[in-house]
Amino acid sequence: MLGSTHGTFTTDPRRAHVVACGELPRHAVHGTAATADDLDVSGRPLHSDVPDLDRFFRPESVAVIGASDTEGRPNTGITRQLFAWAERVGARLHPVHPTRTSVFGTTCFPSVADLPEQVDLAVLLVADPLPVVEQLAEEKVRFAVAFASGFAETGEEGALAQARLAAAAVQRSGMRLLGPNTNLNAFEHFREDLEGPAIALITQSGHQGRPVFALQELGVRLSHWAPTGNEADLETSDFLSYFAERPEVGVIAAYVEGLKDGRAFLLAADRAARRGVPVVAVKVGRTEAGARTAASHTGKLTGADAVVDAAMRQFGVIRVDGLDELQDTAALLARARPPRAEGVAVYSISGGTGAHFADLATEAGLTLPALGEAKQAELHQWIPEYLDVANPVDSGGHPVGDWRGRKIIDAILDDPQVGVLICPITGPFPPMSDQLAQDLVDAAERTDKLVCVVWGSPVGTEDAYRETLLGSSRVATFRTFANCITAVRAHLDHHRFTAHYRSPFDEAPRTPSPSFRKAQALMRPGQQLSEHAAKQLLRAYGIRVPREQLVTSAAAAVRAAGLVGYPVVMKASGAQLAHKTELGLVKVGLTSASQIRDAYRELTDIARYEGAELDGVLVCQMVERGVEMVVGVTHDTLFGPTVTVGLGGVLVEVLRDTAVRVPPFGDDQAQAMLSELRGRALLDGVRGGPPADVDALVEVVQRVQRMALELSGELSELDINPLMVLPRGQGAVALDALAVCR
């Protein structure tokens, strides 16, 4: 980590493990040391500085190291492009080459030290950038771009070379470095004749950004392109933070293979969410093959996909799978105005088309409100009575060819329930389709509601498509049903999310709770705690456990059962015991002293046979009625501690019905986790059963989150299974627990 050589911040025990591991807050690397208010209780940053990248994208002076004008050489084409770019942005360009006196008619300097002025940006067209970076650092250059490959993407040796490169740039002088293993995308030609909110593009693989960049040819404005490469220094989160603050940026589109710093990414996403700037991202790594290939391409971690997915959703990042989805969704979000209503109206010339689209849209979660009787009567002035106009609206075809077509569109848009009008045109049928397209464009110009068209023709050369629809800045045009639905859902979801967004970092705990010291005393580094010890840990954080006693003899077990109250459960308790049920180390429903003695003898015999060392046998209150849930903590390589909730019990591995969040998060996200569960209905009561105490479950999740944050340096894993959620108003009880210390 770059920050590991930047000194010690504090002796605060809350952050001792962070300093020891070299995981200093990122903003301290390029700024001032963190204060207590800048860090949460786990020692991780709550704020990040926005890097000043103005002179990167708009430098006054540029040096090209390794410049060439010899035809046929790769550097010549790059140098020519950089000259053209420098002229467009008004920068002075200085070629640097040890054996040339001029390049393309411009004076060439033999070395960095001979440059006539201090430069803002240096572009390195050399195979070994390290010596040049060291020279640039001496000359106080602000930014450098290293194109060379052969670094972290090649393995451990390359990663070490990359670390040396970053150290030479950042730690020596504060110079910011883009790359290595990057390209020319930042220096492309961005059209300046386009208006409206722009797309800012971030890619770790330059070629993957081409579809979005090409949107300029359709009249969609692009303002920046950041090809981050291996991210030795400048990374996705730096550009995300910077773009979120730019007034011209309406949406940020990103292609992400791996993340260098999960926390930095969340802080950047939080900044965008606070400012209402949508972020749309393709994140590679949903499968093992994708994760492996992405890691080898950039040398970064892809992260556990379920955690990445949840973290993005938690901070409002819209995750899509395909580059076509990235292109279409970003274009819509850049152009569309905030929705006035969430209702979607589908208008088609065919009942079959409307029904098909309505099915897909409803399945995706879009709301298609039934139009009122008065509105339907109005539409039937122009549409035959036998056609359905409740939504979807079926015109039957003929009205779109004359004056009635525009009347129908205006009437639908005037309905207060409707915020989005979608017209799927599955194929051209001139002249009717030409008139329909023109009416949609004209209607879009007079409304602040979103008008979308799906043009299904595979040809794409029709005038109605290329001239009328693509020529409009107010109509969002798609080629497939799926991409239209994805983009519209993202548009509505984004505005709903930002309207109620409260940054979890503002409310994150900064000081340890009274439970922290009690819990620390229970931790055993590198060991798994017994159930008895794990439950003590839960008690320290106010999580309810059953009445129980730990005993070491049959006689003591009988006495304990009398105190706890029959019927009881007896369980072997030992640090090596993870799955006691499978080993026969749990006995339930014991109602007499003889059963207690027999159970004690059997449990200790089995444990002895299995070679398990016990700290005793637990005699526990039997809790029968409730919904079995699981709540847990794991440590993710990218994001640190994560909290999971799901359906619990002995089938937890089979059901795999869980939701995850990255702390910090509020009650709203805890409730959202429950809504994501396929078995959520169990908490509402089934087959006449009472509803479960969901508030108590949310409280347990929040207490576990606090534990995860405060003990992030000591707790590797926590598994409360089952957590019995009792009927409403009766709370929740942790019947079993497993804890593993770091």
Give a description of the structure.
The chain is α/β, with parallel strands linked by helices. Strands 18, 23, 24, 25, 26, 27 and 28 form a seven-stranded antiparallel sheet that branches. A hairpin with a 6-residue loop joins strand 26 (715-725) and strand 27. Helix 14 runs parallel beside helix 15. Mean pLDDT is 91; it is low at 1-32 and 293-302.
For this structure, the quaternary state is single chain
Which class of secondary structure composition applies to the elements? alpha/beta
Helix coverage percent of residues? 25-40%
Relative strand content: 15-25%
Sum this structure up briefly.
With 742 residues, the protein is an alpha/beta fold. It contains 24 helices and 28 strands.
Q: Topology of this structure?
A:
Elements: H1 16-20, H2 54-57, E1 61-65, H3 74-89, E2 92-96, E3 102-103, E4 106-107, E5 121-124, H4 130-138, E6 143-146, H5 156-173, E7 176-178, E8 198-203, H6 210-213, E9 222-227, H7 236-245, E10 249-256, H8 262-274, E11 279-283, H9 288-298, H10 305-314, E12 317-320, H11 323-335, E13 343-348, H12 351-363, H13 373-379, E14 393-394, H14 403-413, E15 418-425, H15 432-445, E16 450-455, H16 463-469, E17 475-478, H17 481-499, H18 514-522, E18 528-529, H19 531-540, E19 548-551, H20 554-564, E20 568-573, E21 586-590, H21 593-610, E22 616-621, E23 627-636, E24 640-647, H22 652-655, E25 658-661, H23 667-675, H24 694-710, E26 715-725, E27 732-734, E28 737-741
Parallel strand pairs: 1-2, 1-5, 5-6, 6-7, 8-9, 8-10, 10-11, 11-12, 13-14, 13-15, 15-16, 16-17
Antiparallel strand pairs: 3-4, 18-28, 19-22, 20-21, 20-22, 23-24, 23-26, 24-25, 26-27, 26-28
Helix pairs in contact: 4-5, 7-8, 11-17, 14-15, 15-16, 18-19, 20-21
